[in-house]
Amino acid sequence: MDDIEKAILISFDESGNIGSSLKSQAVSYCQQIKETPAICRICIDKLCFCNIVQVQFWCLQTLHEVIRVNYALLSSEEKNFVRKSVFALCCFDDSNAAKVLEGPAFIKNKLAQVLVTFIYFEYPLIWSSVFVDFLPYLSKGPIVIDMFCRVLNALDDELISLDYPRTTEDLGVATRVKDAMRQQCIGQIVRAWYDIVSMYRKSDAELCSSVLDSSRRYISWIDIGLIVNDAFMPLLFELVLLDGEFEQLRGAAAGCVLAAVSKRMDPQSKLTMLQSLQISRVFPLVTGDSDSELTSKIAALVTGYAVEILECYKRVTTEDAKGASLDLLNEVLPSVFYVMQNCEVDTAFSIVQFLSGYVATMKSFSPLREKQVHYVGQILEVIRSQICYDPMYRDNLDMLDKIGREEEDRMNEFRKDLFVLLRSVGRMAPEVTQVFIRNSLVNSVSSRSESNVEEVEAALSLLYALGESLSDEALRTGSGLLGELVSMLLSTRFPCHSKRLVALVYLETMTRYMKYVQENTQYVPMVLAAFLDERGIRHQNAHVSRRASYLFMRVVKLLKAKLVPFIETILQSLQDTVARFTSMDYTVNEFSGSEDGSHIFEAIGLLIGMEDVPLEKQADYLSSLLTPLCHQVEILLMNAKVQSSEESPAKIVIIQQIIMAINALSKGFSERLVTASRPAIGLMFKQTLDILLQILVVFPKIEPLRSKVTSFIHRMVDTLGASVFPYLPKALEQLLAESEPKEMVGFLLLLNQLICKFNISVRDIVEEVFPAIAGRVLSVLPKNGFPSGPGSNTEEIRELQELQKTLYTFLHVIATHDLSSVFLSPKSRGFLDSLMHMLLNTACNHKDITVRKIFTRLIKDWCAKPCGEEKVPGFQSFVIEAFGTNCCLYSVLDKSFEFQDANTLVLFGEIVQAQKVMYEKFGDAFLMHLLSKGLPSAHCPQDLAQQYCQKLQGSDFKGLKSFYQSLIENLRLQQNGSLVFR
Predict the structure, then answer these.
(1) 913: alpha, beta or left, given left = phi > 0 and alpha = psi -120 to 50?
(2) Mean pLDDT, the chain, as a whole number?
(3) Does position 347 have pLDDT exceeding 80, yes or no?
(4) How many CB atoms lie within 10 A of CB 175?
(5) Which of 12-16, 226-230, 716-720, 748-752 has the lowest mean pLDDT?
(6) How far is it, in rounded angstroms, from Cα 101 to Cα 708?
(7) Cβ neighbours, 10 Å, residue 729
């Protein structure tokens, strides 16, 4: 070995026996050699005389790089030398070619890539005869034929195939190469393919497979007559239908037939071609070994053929052609359905897309023909088989571990399109669909074991999905077989109900069809039994029991009045579930997430909160629930006072859950019932509120508890109405005392609710807390706006932005509910200036419509008609000079105020409205400011300023708005120096 060969071997070494320093030197040396002028000759020389595979690969890789990158820099002599040498190696026209052609596949593929690089640059303008010159050498036998196939494959991979992203330049070269090949040699190449396969089919099946795999790549763009003719096509079908050990060859032949079938053509010509192929000959082959490569190739041919037939049916225009397409489709569909259910489907074939297309064609048949009815059943069977979970995941899905969650998520996503298809079929053939689902349910429960979990789950999922496409009327009346299906659902005990998936879909499906139960109350006991026994709330799987609690609450909402006779039974059944909330050894992890035990309390509240329940019973029911819950809170609070100040996380969680339970329970009681018709019930909730407010005193800094108590106060405002007033001062004082910005948002939302519900009745309460709110908020919000740019999107900044947004809503609610006098109370007046400047800054910079509405309302409230007494000294001049100029003129002149945006146009209307209000309140004072300072400072011509002031005094608001927009746009243009006013 010389130094180059040694360096190449060292640079390729992966054994780890060579030091990094030596390897680095070897790589550097190889790079130096690459940069020598004689590199091409060095590489050719090594290829001819060296048997070392690594050296051969390095040389071919180097040649490929040199030609691809530096082709234009090579001399004609160098190009000629390398071209002839590479071609001689490919064609075995050199005594040394055996060193390469008898080497491993990756060496031959690299050699093919080098030759294709020459074709890229030189065919057909410089080297027009490359393919014609290659063909005579095929007579040398398999070694050259194999190389020719590799060259064709490399040409497809590197240049022609659209399976890879191509540059515009590459696409142009590909077109040039294809056009030249079509004109010059493709017919000869196809003839060579045919002759080779005919000659070697019995002696060298692997070589024939390679030839056919190459030809398959080219069929999409060559003249289809070269393949679909009386010679080549019979040969392909003969190979496909062979018996024996030639699976690879048969599969390759099937791939060529599929390429011909898939070729883009005029629909009528395509139909004629498909009819001539008689592909039905291969249909029986799909029933072979489902795991074999041949069956997979035949399946791809059958499905690809079906797709093309369906496309023909859509595109042909004559009735005869449509009839012929339909005949071919009917012929292939049984095999397609078999493939869908029993074979690995080729990724290029979308089951849903094909079946959706076929269903769309069937919609034109009314009524469906017998054959189409049969195919609807087949489609439904395909859907059913496709949505079945794999039994290998059964335990994972039941435990819902990581693998189970991933599989469930995957299947939920996969099922979406299939259920859309199911609903389409259901609308087109409702009776057939319902019969199929009924039979699926019957079959799924015929086995009394748990071996068919997946089939039961699939059958129930079909019934659930069907309900999405049914109208409310159909759901109520149980049209068709629906009544029978719901009856079967409610009365059936599924053998695998202990499994999470089956139990969940059973409960979801039952809930979906509850409107039928509303109209057929004989089923109510069955529904209650399912939810209250081990199939629902008492299910052994915690995921199921939680979901059952939530769904039961939804069912109670729907059936409500129908459940009055069953209240005693329901409460008795739920006694142990409810008791878990009153147990001191209640654990943190027993319930979690949104589907926790509080749903049970909401369901109970909905039941016992009805006026249909007698007062005495209602009071007893409510007392039996509230008393132990409140007692438990009192004990926990007492212990917290006595013990150390370190709060136990478990205690806090217990209190949280109790508040949530009571909150949920109260949702069933209306304000009218607890305040007017049955005040005794209202008193019970007041006593409960009194106890829960103690939590704020004992645990003043525990944010989750403060949040839950706030939520309960919201609920009591809705439930108790004005009778909640005595409890508010104490509650608001405690909530305000320790509130952080995030909590302050919740506090303001509570005040918004109070103001919106009670209006001026809460004036005293709002006046009392407003100074503290203003002081707290102004101390934490930045005075000059929020920072922008890198590092400004922190959680703290986001919380403050949310607080400012909520504050503005709060101020707007105050202003629009006749409570603006709150801002002027002696304790609040000191904050007025700061608040006004914050509002002004936001109105000018952020174009917030809520803030502008606040100003408009305050102008109406605080400013008398012209010459009237000034209610708030200095406010009029502030509004005219600051708000009227900065927010209604300067901010609108900014180009960020985009008139093309719909929201901006709404805001612009508010701005014009504000000016209109200012004129009505301030009269000539406002107009004089506009004419003498405002508009002149914006370089507005005096005549246009006067016209605008005249418009302001008129009654045409639409015209005023249009004129002002035009004025602003003109002023913007003038600022750019591109406008001359006319």
Answers:
(1) alpha
(2) 90
(3) no
(4) 12
(5) 12-16
(6) 79
(7) 13
Question: What's the Cα-to-Cα distance from 162 to each of 218, 221, 349, rounded to whole Å?
Answer: 12, 11, 18
CA–CA separation, 257 vs 227, rounded Å?
Answer: 9
Q: Is 361 exposed, middle or buried (0-12, 13-18, 19+ CB in 10 A)?
A: middle
And the tokens for 28? Answer: 């550097």
Closest C-alpha among 197, 108, 194 to residue 154? 108
H or E element in which residue 355 lies: helix 351-362
Matching residue, tokens 């995030």: 742
E strand or H helix at 299, and its extent? helix 293-315
Torsion angle defined by CA atoms of residues 617, 622, 627 and 630, in that order, rounded to the nearest 10 degrees = -170
Q: Which of 905, 934, 897 is nearest to 919 (CA)?
A: 934
- Pick the closest to residue 274 from 325, 220, 331 (CA basis): 325
Task: Give the model's confidence band at 815: pLDDT under 50 very low, under 70 low, under 90 confident, else very high.
Answer: very high
Query: SS3 for 44?
Result: helix
d(CA 880, CA 914): 11
The one-letter amino acid code at 642 reads V
pLDDT, tens digit, 9 for 90 and up, residues 835-884 = 999 998 888 876 678 888 999 999 999 987 766 677 888 899 999 989 98
Residue 738, token pair as written in the block: 């320790």
Which long-range CB contacts under 8 A does 163-172 form with residues at least 24 apart? none
What's 673's DSSP letter? I
Residue 419's contacts (CB-CB under 8 Å, 6 or more residues apart) are 387, 465, 468
929: left (phi over 0), alpha (psi -120 to 50) or beta: alpha
- Angle, CA of 331, 335 and 338, to the nearest 5°: 150
Q: Are 582 and 654 in contact (CB under 8 A)?
A: no
Amino acid at 79: K
Listing DSSP states for 895-961 in one string gives TTS-TTSHHHHHHHHHHHHHHHHHHHHHTHHHHHHIIIIIHHHTT--HHHHHHHHHHHHSS-HHHHH
